[in-house]
Amino acid sequence: MERIQMNGKYPLSSEDANDASCIISDESAPITAKTVYIKFLLFCVSILLSISSYSGLIDLQSSINISDALGTRSLTLMSISTVICCLFFAPIVTSAFGAKNTILCSQVGYVLYVVSNYFPVSYVLLPGGVVLGIAEGFLYTPTLMYCTYFGRQLAGIESSKVKENVNRLVGYFWAIFQMNEILGNSISTIILNLGKPALINVTDAHSPDFSLPTSASSLNTSIVSNTSVTGYSTVLDSAVHDYSMCGADDCYNENEFDAKQDSYVPLRNTVHVMLAVYTTLAVVAIPIMCFTPSLPRKSKKDIQQETNNNNSSKQIALNAKQMWKHFMKTLEQLISPQQLLITPLTLYHGLYVSFISSEISRAFVSCTVGVEMVGLGMFGGGFLTVFVSVVYGTWAKSNLCRQWLLAMSILLDASLYIICLLWRPSEDDAYLGLVICIVFGISDGVWSPLIDGKYAKYFSQNEEIAYSVSNLWNCVGFTMMYGWTTLLCVRVKIYIQLSVLFIGVIGLYGAELRHKKKKENPAT
């Protein structure tokens, strides 16, 4: 699932660099570039393990917790709590507890969310979604600070520019970070396929070699049969899969899900094995982060100033004032003409990512080829996303190449939506749903850097707030898609996707024209 963007992806403004309290190193022992890279790698691996521990899991939520839309409801709460924490509380919490402690608390939140999936009931999983959202909201600010910290250390050692080092390390970080989809979904694919029960097709119930599984539920429900039970013998007359409610015709029918439960929900023991592996990843990430150096909290000048103003009531008032100032700047950004033009495309990206993780994974993969193939689809899509992102970064210097990639993404998305509308799944082409899931990853490799680049281009004087607003609209898209999962048929959702894409493209070109005009005549 694509999920929240960090300021660290982009060249930092002077305000961003000054706000990062990690820019001063108090270490007296000499350090080498190799030492810095090793510490940076430990930091990246710790974050990768934490994110991987739930990235594969949330792609399965609309399938393994399909009853009462429990999985998607938990993701809705996650998106809402992430927005609130990221916009209002993350900087204050990071300042109060320090970057390292904030990340450690977030990693504990990831552990709690994975563990909550052992008990898939509303009073456990829904609070788990809130905890996950809080953990995500608090993770990204200190991550930016760490990238800045290591970049400045390298700049001091290599006598190079700070900005170049910071951006280089951020690029390395994102290259490692993007592997979470690959790692997380490869785990689910392997475990769910190994735990998949063998298909049994019996034509002679009286055969002496026929042995009955100890539990009827262990039969894969892709076998729909007329079954007669006498003692411990079972007759399966046919092996026919019903595809009539798959693809665009999926309307989240509870009766249909109950009839094909095992197409969506794997054996519980298999799920427990998968959760055990994810829990291990999340837990191992914590001690690795403990080996990552703590960032210097304050400079001597800051400490002296804090001592002179050591008054809790003043500090509370200051924090409240900062929150209000941040809120007003965010509101100004939200209603600015340029932001209004780029908002539909930003919203589309949130809808797009959540549409893949909630609808494509359930209606086009789980329903047709089984839940055990969801991880493979997301793995393939994630690999293509990383590959196309690299291609985009290589070609981004050319305006013509950027325009070509944009046009390709628009046509590819529109084509995939039309295929989804027209395709009627059958036994002969059931795997087309898996192919659709994989191919959707291509466009995400363009949309993410393209939209982020537009924000950096249009709002270079107000990057921090602009990125927060970008995160906000992405999360609004997540919330909308997860929220109406049970209310709308997939066909209606596809029409909404096409409409928002069309409006978003028009808005983007309007924003480009407005920016070009403003650049030619700054006085306007």
Gist of the model:
This protein is mostly helical.
Describe this structure in words.
- This protein has 524 residues and is mainly α.
- The chain folds into 2 domains: 7-196 and 265-520, MFS general substrate transporter like domains (Growth Hormone, Chain: A, Up-down Bundle), CATH 1.20.1250; 216-264, no CATH class.
- It is 72% helix and 2% strand.
- It contains 18 helices and 2 strands.
- The protein has helices at residues 14-19, 33-64, 70-97, 99-116, 122-158, 162-177, 180-194, 254-259, 261-264, 268-291, 300-308, 312-335, 337-369, 374-395, 399-422, 432-458, 463-483, 490-520, and strands spanning 227-230, 233-236.
- It has a two-stranded antiparallel ribbon with strand order 1-2.
- Helix 3 (70-97) runs antiparallel to helix 17 and helix 7 (180-194) packs antiparallel against helix 14.
- The longest helix is centred in the N-terminal third of the chain and has 37 residues, at 122-158.
- The protein is globular and about 65 Å long.
- Residues 1-28 and 199-239 have low confidence and may be disordered.
Instruction: Give the averaged pLDDT, no decimals.
Output: 76
Spans of at least 5 consecutive residues whose pLDDT stays below 50 are 1-28, 199-239
Tell me the β content.
Answer: under 5%
Q: Can you say what the CATH homologous superfamily of the largest domain is?
A: MFS general substrate transporter like domains
